[in-house]
Design a protein that fits this description.
The chain is 33% helix and 20% strand. The chain is an alpha/beta fold. The chain has a seven-stranded mixed sheet with strand order 3-6-2-7-1-9-8, sandwiched between helices. Strands 4-5 form a two-stranded antiparallel ribbon. The two termini are 12 Å apart. This is Class III extradiol dioxygenase subunit B-like domain-containing protein.
Length: 237
């Protein structure tokens, strides 16, 4: 069953080498993510699954030891999902899971085996719920690291330009994640989320499915929209 979860944003800019001179702007977000991973470790899970959205080639399960890289962003930074296993991986991590792997390496994660799951940002809410229930059943004590951004339409310079619906959408997502409101997360509109470029919608609804029949409580650790993109950090325990 699900015993803990951490929700983190997944911009490659979290990696200081990628952000370069702008790195200090996300220091508070990095600190919040580290604190969130501490909650996962304290739960003593038997298995940690990192969940994030991915393009078609990056969807599906990723075993422990799968490598990822940020070389596509112009920096010589490589990561690995958990400890090496000695098995040659078939493919690299998608960007969202690579950021998750970087966060785990940064905090020295060694508390449980780690796996990854890349999903489509268009995954229907019903399938998200089913996926979450399947993940929660993978071990007696399962933890999730849920990687996903809120809207990308919070300012005129945002990737999706300014959309007046973005701030209310993000506020409701932050409230739901900060209070572990499963019904509110399930109610997030996938069509609106896609219009607002909120890639976190599907992973958040997977989390809601995994938390079915639990009594986890939530805490919102960080909420901001640098670069016009909503970034949220929350913990469930």
């Amino acid at each position: 069953m699900l015993v803990a979860a951490a929700v983190c944003p997944c911009p490659p800019l979290l990696v200081p080498e990628v952000a370069a001179g702008a790195a200090p702007e996300l220091d508070a977000a990095r600190t919040a993510c580290s604190d969130a991973l501490g909650v996962l470790a304290a739960a003593r899970p038997d298995l940690l699954v990192v969940v994030g959205t991915a393009e078609p080639g990056g969807r599906g399960p990723f075993p422990q030891g799968t490598p990822g890289t940020f070389r596509g962003f112009g920096v010589d930074v490589d990561v690995r999902l958990g400890a090496a296993t000695g098995t040659a991986p078939e493919r690299e991590l998608p960007a969202s899971l690579a950021v998750g792997a970087w966060l785990l390496e940064r905090t020295g994660w060694a508390d449980a085996p780690v796996e990854g799951l890349g999903v489509a940002d268009t995954l229907e809410p019903e399938r998200c719920a089913g996926t979450g229930r399947e993940l929660a059943g993978r071990a007696d004590r399962v933890a999730l690291l849920v990687m996903g951004d809120a809207s990308a339409c919070r300012s005129l310079k945002a990737p999706g330009y300014l959309d007046v619906r973005a701030a209310p959408f993000d506020a409701e997502a932050a409230r739901a994640l900060g209070t572990a409101d499963l019904a509110a997360l399930r109610a997030l509109d996938p069509a609106l989320a896609r219009e607002l470029k909120a890639a976190g919608r599907a992973p958040w609804q997977i989390l809601a499915g995994a938390a079915h029949d639990t009594r986890l409580t939530g805490t919102l650790l960080y909420e901001d929209a640098p670069y016009g993109v909503g970034y949220l950090v929350a913990t469930w325990s």
